[in-house]
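QA checklist item 7 of 12: single-chain prediction sanity check.
[x] sequence parsed
[x] length recorded as 182
[x] structure emitted
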Amino acid sequence: KPFTGKIVVENIKEGGYEGYFNFKNGKLEGPTELKGTKGSDNPNLHVKFNLSGGKYDGDLIYFYTKSSDMRLTYDKGTPLTVKIISRGEKVMDVKFVNSLANGYAYIGAGANFKDGKGKVSGLGMGKLFDYVTMKVDKDNKIVYTLSKDDINDPNELIYMATIDMIEPMMMELISQTNRYNL
């Protein structure tokens, strides 16, 4: 029979984790929190969230190291804010208004977003990478896309319709560059 109830993980002397998980019919539901303890393989770990109907609701905290911190706020599965610090650097500080990003995000370079549109500066790769949109889609996922409206020549887009299509090309360039520089 699928489990319904709370599982509490207590501090382990040799190191480990402590916290609690709530389940309903065998699935996580309700508040969950897990922290690394002294002597664990990651004593800085702190994960905390609430699930309602299988969707995040409220604050989600994922603190991995002293210099990496991710905090999101959800309303019934819809992302409202995202704040990410990685290796001590601000990666994202965005608030979604009517599903459109407002704030700062690092997407290959820093970009400031207003009403979903941001200008990426500092990539040095021409207008292809200059403008990007960021929004919450119908599946409540945060998506990035290039904006044709903001680019003078549509041919500059080549086949790079989304960031997902750009990343593999960039990784290939990085691996070739590293190979040639050995």
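[x] summary fact logged: Residues 122-128, 154-163, 173-182 have pLDDT under 50 and may be disordered.
[ ] second reviewer sign-off
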